[in-house]
Amino acid sequence: MKRLSELDSGRKARILSFENNDLFLKLMEMGCVPGELVRIDQIAPLGDPISISVAGYSLSLRLNEAENIFVEELS
């Protein structure tokens, strides 16, 4: 199990759970639900924010938000 913030650009993963319950509802409303596939599209030059594809659309997340999402990296 890894954090979404630890993945490199181009990698795919499945969302497993969330660490911070305060962000849980916000992330769920954006399509980040357990079981959903996610792909890291781009990482900003300084590492923050990151752009991901989830639930059929692109989403920009701050690194501190991505650190709260536990994923299973797919090959």
From TrEMBL:
Residues 2-73 form the Ferrous iron transporter FeoA-like domain. InterPro entries: Fe-transptr_FeoA-like, FeoA, FeoA_core_dom, Transcriptional_repressor_C. The lineage of its organism: Bacteria, Pseudomonadati, Bacteroidota, Chitinophagia, Chitinophagales. This is Ferrous iron transport protein A. GO terms for molecular function: transition metal ion binding. Keywords: Iron. Coiled coil: none annotated.
